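Before we proceed, please read the two lines closing this message. Let me know whether the structure tokens fit the sequence:

…
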Amino acid sequence: MADQISSKKQQDLQVQYSNFKTQLQQLAQKIGDIEQDAEEHKLVLETLEPLPGQRKCFRMINGVLVERTVKDTMPAVRSNSDGLKRVLDDLVKQYQKRQDEMDKWKVREDRCRCCRGRS
């Protein structure tokens, strides 16, 4: 009977550990995606910066390519870029918080064989 309880506890601990790892991987994936988008916005801003304000440029808005001027486009791209940076900061904080929770859980559940030797 004690073996069944111990086995059940080990299974529960393994599930909790897997959940922590999955959540961390999902957050890391989102962070990577947002970093890539932010880098693309930065590249667009660097490209448009030296151009005259009346020059034509094209921008994708909700899947539709629209013609605008550099002067009209720059504020929107800057705003989007700033928003991406804020989202990225929030996601990094969430990741660190979740990582800390997992580390505390691992210390608390030190008897767990499922997470020994893993990081």
About this structure: Strands lie at 56-61, 64-69. The mean pLDDT is 89. Residues 6 and 105 are 18 Å apart (CA to CA). The radius of gyration is 23 Å.
